[in-house]
Specification:
The chain is an alpha/beta fold and 391 residues long. The protein has helices at 2-27, 43-60, 80-92, 105-118, 146-156, 173-188, 207-216, 230-239, 284-296, 304-322, 329-336; strands at residues 29-36, 63-64, 67-75, 98-101, 122-124, 139-141, 164-170, 192-199, 220-224, 248-252, 272-275, 340-343, 346-350, 357-369, 372-384. Strands 7, 8, 9, 10, 11, 12, 13, 14 and 15 form a 9-stranded mixed sheet that branches. Helix 2 (43-60) crosses helix 10 and helix 3 (80-92) packs parallel to helix 4. The structure holds P-hydroxybenzoic acid. Residues 104-105, 126-129, 173-174, 226-227, 254 line the site of P-hydroxybenzoic acid.
């Protein structure tokens, strides 16, 4: 009898301990659900961001504020319905503390309602349409916005003999932002956009559009295409001899993406773009970043997507440290707002009101340096807030 009672008691205690242990194990894990396009048209974005997130963790350890940080990477193939389903599964089944990634605008927007309903911070590391941060109060952005990059180029162009421009953009959120903000600012500075062309996001054929541009003979063609599509534009631009016809190619830095730039050939030399990140950014922090990134990834050069992922991890880690691993989504979100730090891109901060990134925008020109093609920065507009937020 005594023995039986003792047995029951000990097993009950053991079960409780086991359960407690289980809770403790769960409690001690901090999960980041990283949803990225790992396959399909936007796969380079996924590859760059995953590599950057893993580098950040390798450099900073996976124990933060007593929690073991766990990265759960999911491939959404850049289909927004898939992004949404994965986000839901990550929140409900995995109980992730943070959702992160989001290679394209439609994927970021598709997840916003899940972030809001579950009070889970959603760290947007890639997508760059201005309005994204307004889709949920739980969204924080570490990439950039197209208005940010575009207005800076529209400041530079008219001062450099570019008055008559044709724009060519991918026909969705970021492209429409780029088209609009570039045009408005160019007109303000005495220039004009004589034609606005839009190409489909999926499998675009640039040829007929470029033929039209040739016939219109503008001073320059302003381009926005998402990361990964720049090389195709450059190739067709050069094949059609547009540069020889006296038409300059300008754009946001997405077109001379560091992931592809080195393979674009000498025809890319001289192309001027505006952006927040160049692998050639001359700072000690960036040199260290580029070197470590290359070392960990068979010589791969980080692009602006990588830096968005790296800094996004920084924002999450610091929020976890500040909340001492005790807070829920709201506490984490509060600790993300207002963070200010030196990124490989230069100084940046997360505006506490808008939850959007404020950063320098650089004017860069493609040059050959040490045998390789780089976006070499030659001017900077400091602390640019998203112009889309002031309307
Ligand atoms: C976006 O879909 O928001 C996006 C994707 C790639 C870029 C920029 C913006 O390079």
């Amino acid at each position: 009898m005594m023995q039986k009672r003792f047995f029951l008691k000990t097993t009950a205690v053991a079960a409780l301990a086991l359960a407690a242990g289980h809770v403790l194990a769960q409690d001690n894990v901090f999960k980041i659900g990283l949803i990225l396009p790992m396959t399909g048209q936007q796969a380079t974005t996924g590859r760059q961001i995953e590599a950057a997130a893993r580098l950040y963790m390798a450099q900073n350890g996976d124990m933060v504020a007593g929690k073991k940080v766990q990265l759960i990477v999911k491939d959404d193939t850049s289909i927004p319905d898939v992004t949404k389903r994965l986000a839901q599964e990550l929140v409900v089944n995995e109980k992730v503390n943070v959702l992160a990634g989001f290679g394209i605008t439609p994927s970021a927007l598709a997840t916003a309602s899940i972030a809001t309903q579950s009070k889970t911070p959603q760290v947007v590391m890639a997508a760059a349409t201005s309005s994204i941060t307004e889709a949920s109060p739980y969204i924080v952005r570490t990439s950039f916005t197209l208005p940010q990059a575009s207005v800076s180029l529209a400041e530079w162009a008219p001062k450099n003999g570019i008055k008559k421009v044709v724009s060519l953009v991918s026909d969705y959120g970021p492209g429409i932002d780029a088209e609009k903000y570039f045009k408005e600012r160019l007109i303000l500075n005495g220039g004009q956009v004589i034609e606005s062309l839009r190409v489909p996001l999926r499998n675009p054929d640039f040829a007929p559009f470029l033929q039209k541009v040739r016939d219109l003979k503008p001073d320059a063609l302003f381009v926005f295409v998402p990361s990964g599509a720049g090389a195709a534009v450059m190739k067709q631009f050069l094949e059609r001899g547009m540069d020889k016809a006296g038409i300059r190619l300008i754009g946001t830095g997405d077109v001379t993406d560091d992931d592809q730039l080195n393979d674009m050939g000498d025809g890319a030399i001289g192309v001027v773009t505006s952006h927040h990140y160049s692998a050639a950014h001359p700072s000690a922090v960036n040199k260290k970043f580029v070197e470590a990134f290359g070392k960990a990834n068979k010589g791969m050069r980080p692009n602006f997507m990588a830096v968005g992922g790296y800094d996004g991890m920084r924002v999450i880690y610091e929020a976890l440290k500040v909340t001492k691993g005790q807070g829920g989504g709201d506490a984490l979100l509060a600790a993300m707002k207002g963070q200010i730090f030196e990124s490989p891109r230069g100084p940046m901060f997360i505006d506490a009101q808008t939850r959007d990134v404020v950063q320098n925008i650089y004017l860069r020109k493609v040059e050959r340096k040490d045998g390789q093609l780089y976006n070499v920065e030659f001017d900077v507009i400091k602390d640019v807030k998203d112009p889309g937020k002031t309307k």
